[in-house]
């Protein structure tokens, strides 16, 4: 199912900076009627409001706080597109004494947060005709980096959940997209030591728009991501995206 941005109402988590901010800007550039900027502190989205006026509506969402997610779903009851971009990076190796704390934190936001958003907004999307749900995963969802092991594990889990959402939400007419960037010019990339090779966040946001239009589940938007996908595409097409019940 193709999903056109023009005239639609969207919600983007983690919308105040980095990839999230770029997604808001791309959606508006492609004709989105309104974008809810879902952030922990609504004041942090005021620069977007100053630039785009009432087409941007800040709304409180903390992925660790289920109450804020459900409250946002009630407020943003006109949403037709949900982009769950917010995530955290606090990675440790498996042998680090901080591994358990890092893994617990990253899973709470990157995995449980995804489930909280999906459960809260699935009924909203269904009521509004199906719509679309986009999840920001990562290339590390298919390849673990030892120094980023806990983050990689959380993104592998979120990718797994996204695959399940594709099946379940698809039954209600909701398009699901899984996005797998490599190093993108954000604070997270700097923290991970990839700042020198990071590419613009607009590569991700524009690729999301194209994927929704072209009915693509997987998005590997940047140079490193495309290298990963070159080796992964055959498996992705024949197993992840295939209807195994019909195989």
From TrEMBL:
PROSITE patterns xrefs: ADH_SHORT
An example Gene Ontology molecular-function term: oxidoreductase activity
InterPro entries, per database record: NAD(P)-bd_dom_sf, Sc_DH/Rdtase_CS, SDR_fam
Coiled-coil blocks: none
Lineage per the UniProt record: Bacteria, Pseudomonadati, Planctomycetota, Planctomycetia, Pirellulales
Family matches, as SUPFAM superfamilies: NAD(P)-binding Rossmann-fold domains
Family of the protein in this entry: Belongs to the short-chain dehydrogenases/reductases (SDR) family.
Pfam families (UniProt xref): adh_short
Oxidoreductase as UniProt keyword: yes
Key word Aminoacyl-tRNA synthetase present: no
Protein name per its UniProtKB record: SDR family oxidoreductase
Keywords associated with the record: Oxidoreductase
């Amino acid at each position: 199912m193709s999903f056109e941005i023009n005239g639609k109402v969207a919600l983007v988590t983690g919308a105040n900076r980095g990839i999230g901010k770029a997604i808001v800007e791309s959606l508006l550039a492609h004709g989105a009627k309104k974008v809810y900027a879902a952030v922990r502190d609504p004041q942090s989205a005021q620069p977007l409001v100053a630039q785009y006026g009432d087409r941007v509506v800040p709304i409180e969402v903390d992925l660790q706080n289920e109450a804020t997610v459900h409250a946002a779903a009630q407020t943003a009851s006109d949403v037709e597109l949900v982009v769950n971009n917010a995530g955290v990076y606090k990675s440790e190796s498996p042998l680090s004494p901080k591994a358990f704390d890092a893994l617990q934190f990253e899973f709470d936001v990157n995995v449980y947060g995804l489930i909280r958003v999906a459960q809260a907004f699935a009924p909203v999307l269904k009521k509004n005709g199906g719509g679309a749900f986009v999840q920001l995963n990562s290339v590390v969802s298919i390849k673990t980096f030892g120094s980023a092991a806990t983050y990689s594990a959380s993104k592998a889990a979120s990718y797994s959940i996204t695959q399940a959402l594709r099946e379940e939400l698809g039954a209600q007419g909701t398009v699901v997209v899984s996005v797998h960037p490599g190093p993108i010019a954000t604070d997270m990339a700097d923290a991970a030591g990839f700042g020198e090779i990071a590419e613009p966040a607009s590569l991700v946001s524009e690729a999301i728009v194209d994927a929704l239009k072209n009915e693509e589940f997987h998005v590997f938007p940047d140079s490193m991501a495309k290298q990963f996908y070159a080796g992964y595409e055959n498996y992705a097409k024949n197993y992840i995206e295939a209807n195994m019940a019909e195989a």
